[in-house]
Design brief:
Largest sheet: 5 strands, mixed
CATH class of the largest domain: Alpha Beta
Number of strands: 9
Bound molecules: iron/sulfur cluster
Strand content: 5-15%
Helix content: 40-55%
Strand order of the largest sheet: 6-5-9-7-8
CATH superfamily of the largest domain: NADH-ubiquinone oxidoreductase 51kDa subunit
Order of helices and strands: HHHHEHHEHEHEHHEEHEEHEHHHHH
């Protein structure tokens, strides 16, 4: 079986094309027919290939994947071993792309994870998936299929397993996942997983989508990968589009697509838009004018935003951006891991100030909120408080006129509209952090 030759970017989805055509999981035989065999011959060159491809992590940070691989490989040599964790835990409530990808093309993700493990010298791969979604059984089924066919896994000296971390928002953070996989709680730590991850060993924690791209780069090479996307952010990316659009869902586009093209693909807006939430709940609100901007980290940075985890939520004119932000900020505050004072004490206080200025015309709360945001930003062991500050800060900027309206007691029709952004029920106390 040879790898199908792809000669150029045809504008078609690379990761979810088969799913869109069939609306079902690509079983191993179909995956092999579409993508060719597991390219073990590429393992020795894989790190260089990923660097040349310019692949950047699709979990939110857009960090260069090749650099991550090199760091863990070097640290692993010194530490006498390393580990790979596939981050499919996707705790962003408005995101669904990693869950979809694991359902649609589990073998592409697993190929990428196993090839990355072989390239950096890891012997064990742990796939972490969102608890309570049935994904663990789905991935376990894919692993059984591979074992039966002698495709990767034990046949290439790897142990691959699936785990379900707790559903807390911060439990999908890389150090929290490494801690959980190593037998601890799913809480962030203040030491990088690249240095000290699972069982104290250097650990590559990489997003599901990132590893799927890696599985394709190993087959088709860096030049092919760069045929889509921009020079700084090559390839395609998955976006979860929701809110006031006609066809909510997960879409795959070359990186650098404009927001207008994304919204158009999602059927267009159902109402005139007031703002968009980009990246995720730790992302930023932007005005609709930003839709003309290419969605790359570099192009969105001047707008205080990033593609992040590919979340795009369209907020209609009739909704209240402040009310939406208050709900999300309160939920994010409830998700902190109770380890760092500025986060544990500061996030509920920030959510409370936002609620007071939104619902109670409390002008003092606005000044206090700005002060508290400065006090909390970059003061946690992980980036959770920074994300809340970013969200709140962008809300004050983008909904500035709305803030004035609320404080002066002018009517806001959006106050009585049902909330739009999903806020999941928190994990039960008995579920804890394990
Ligand atoms: S900053 Fe917050 S979420 Fe992060 S480790 Fe500290 S308490 Fe936990």
């Amino acid at each position: 079986m040879s790898t199908p030759q792809l000669v150029g970017y045809d504008g078609q989805p690379r990761l979810i094309g088969a799913w869109l055509a069939t609306n079902r999981t690509a079983m191993l035989a179909e995956h092999a027919a579409i993508n060719g065999p597991l390219p073990l011959g590429a393992v020795s060159r894989l790190m260089d290939m990923v660097v040349a491809a310019g692949l950047r992590g699709r979990g939110g940070a857009w960090f260069p994947t090749g650099r991550k691989l090199g760091t863990v490989a070097r640290n692993g040599q010194t530490a006498g071993g390393c580990h790979v964790v596939v981050n499919g835990a996707e705790s962003e409530p408005a995101a669904g792309k990693d869950k979809l990808l694991l359902r649609a093309a589990p073998h592409l993700v697993l190929d990428g994870a196993e090839l990355a493990a072989l390239a950096i010298g890891a012997k064990r791969v742990t796939v972490c998936v969102h608890r309570g979604t049935g994904l663990a059984q789905h991935v376990a089924g894919a692993l059984a299929e591979r074992a039966a066919a002698g495709w990767g896994g034990k046949a290439v000296g790897l142990t691959v397993e699936v785990m379900e971390p707790p559903r807390w928002y911060v439990s999908s953070e890389s150090t929290a996942l490494a801690n959980f996989v190593g037998g601890g709680e799913g809480k962030p730590r203040d030491v990088s997983a690249y240095r000290e991850g699972v069982g104290g060993k250097p650990t590559l924690v990489s997003n599901t989508e990132t590893l799927a791209h890696l599985g394709l780069i190993a087959r088709h090479g860096p030049d092919w990968f760069r045929m889509a996307g921009t020079a700084e952010a090559p390839g395609t990316a998955l976006f979860t589009v929701s809110g006031a659009v006609r066809a909510r869902g997960v879409y795959e586009f070359p990186v650098g697509v404009t927001g207008n093209e994304i919204i158009r693909a999602a059927g267009g807006p159902t109402e005139p838009l007031q703002a968009l939430l980009l990246g995720g709940y730790g992302g930023a609100w932007v005005p609709p004018g930003v839709l003309a901007t290419p969605f790359t980290p570099e192009a969105l940075r001047p707008h205080g935003a990033s593609p992040g985890a590919g979340v795009v939520v369209a907020l209609p004119l009739g909704a209240c951006g402040l009310v939406e932000t208050v709900r999300v900020a309160a939920w994010l505050a409830s998700q902190n891991a109770r380890q760092c004072g500025p986060c544990f004490n500061g996030l509920p206080a920030i959510a409370d100030d936002l609620a007071r200025l939104t619902w109670r015309r409390d002008r003092v709360a606005l000044d206090r909120l700005r002060f508290r945001m400065r006090m909390v930003d970059k003061r946690g062991a992980c980036g959770h408080p920074d994300g809340v500050v970013k969200l709140a800060d962008s809300a004050l900027r983008v909904f500035g006129a709305c803030v004035d309206k609320h404080l002066s007691g002018q009517g806001c029709p959006g106050l009585y509209r049902p909330p739009m952004l999903p806020v999941p029920a928190p994990p039960s106390r008995s579920e804890g952090w394990k």
